[in-house]
Amino acid sequence: MDSKTIAIAGEITPVKTIIPVVKRLRELDGEDRLNFKIDRIIGLYHGESAKEFLEPYCDELLSIGEGRRGARNSTPKLAYLISRDILKAFNALRGKGIDLLVTAGNAGDVRKSIIAANLLGIPILHIEQDIYNPIEVISQANLVTVPSEEYEKLVRDKYQLRNVVNIQGYPMAKYVEDYKEGNLISREDIYDEFAVRDFVLAVLGGDLKDEDIKPLVEALETLNLHVLIAPYRFKKDFVESFVISPNVKVLEEHVDLLSFLNASSTLIFAAGMGITIEAGVFNVPSIKIEGFHKTHGSVDLARKLNMPIVKIPDIPETFEHLNELNSGDLIKNSETAIEMIVDLINSFDFDAKRSGLSSARRIWNQRKAFR
């Protein structure tokens, strides 16, 4: 039986989509139920936090440069940095005997990995969750998966992607469900530390700008409830500077968000697909703050989960009439998606043709709306 080396790439949130697939592959490999033996799983990372996250699931880790989230560079410097990192990714992958690259997400690590793999002739499977804002290089993947039939039609028509498979769900939901078992800080510990037993969790993610923080804090204080704010994409001191009420406390910038979500009574957040899935798995009544991107995969999912999407001034009134989520078959569909991806890897068509440059241009033009 042939052995294969599989590389995986994605930032921390997107790679949660790949991890359940890796775990299932290893299970089947141990039972000799794959068409090949797994030689190695190699994790490609940029940034130490991603490295630490990938380490338990990989046999080897390779650096492919650095992330530049939030950095402002001139166009020539940015081109230089991207080219340098692509070269680093190329050198990292070269000679490693990688048979397949599996990617998820739309950040620079995926761009670097796919371009390098393409140059080296390594086949690529990309798992896409937000079909409205994919990265243009997925046009160079041999196979792209999407979470629904509707999305499959959209990417075929809008981006002219050829080899697309509807996997019927979000694999990340299974990662979150598994994480709930034995990894969470106990609710009692959180209650004791912050001297509250019933609190609203507010998560300040990428759908907010600096000028949104003051009115958001004011809206949260209007609730007249205990609120814990996870600043996430913002500095703790900056958020705290707007807090007046003793009921509102700002957490450290990096906390175990899932543990706080598990302990909370309600979630209010301004972020994307990751936390939308997490809220659905924990089935916490939630309000999603309307971001500057009105069309987004997380918006579609929020609506399916019966999660209101509102502007900041409308939070207090919406909170008064908040209903339970409708998580439905989120976990079941996630398990289906994982099995479908595993089947695709197990019988991968290594000769499948990529969609090409015309698809890349279409995706590039679409991404302009998200800049």
Please provide a written account of the structure.
The protein has 371 residues and is an alpha/beta fold. 43% of the residues lie in helices and 16% in strands. The chain has 15 helices and 13 strands. The chain has helices at 12-30, 48-54, 75-93, 108-120, 149-159, 172-179, 187-194, 213-222, 236-240, 257-263, 273-282, 297-304, 315-320, 330-346, 357-367; strands spanning 3-9, 37-45, 60-63, 100-104, 124-127, 143-146, 164-166, 200-204, 227-230, 248-250, 266-270, 286-289, 309-310. Strands 3-2-1-4-5-6-7 form a seven-stranded parallel sheet, with helices on both faces. Strands 10-9-8-11-12-13 form a six-stranded parallel sheet, sandwiched between helices. Helix 1 (12-30) crosses helix 6, helix 6 packs across helix 14 and helix 11 (273-282) packs parallel to helix 12 (297-304). The radius of gyration is 21 Å and the shape is globular. The termini are far apart.
Question: Helices, strands, pairings?
Answer:
Elements: E1 3-9, H1 12-30, E2 37-45, H2 48-54, E3 60-63, H3 75-93, E4 100-104, H4 108-120, E5 124-127, E6 143-146, H5 149-159, E7 164-166, H6 172-179, H7 187-194, E8 200-204, H8 213-222, E9 227-230, H9 236-240, E10 248-250, H10 257-263, E11 266-270, H11 273-282, E12 286-289, H12 297-304, E13 309-310, H13 315-320, H14 330-346, H15 357-367
Parallel strand pairs: 1-2, 1-4, 2-3, 4-5, 5-6, 6-7, 8-9, 8-11, 9-10, 11-12, 12-13
Helix pairs in contact: 1-6, 1-14, 3-4, 6-11, 6-14, 7-10, 11-12
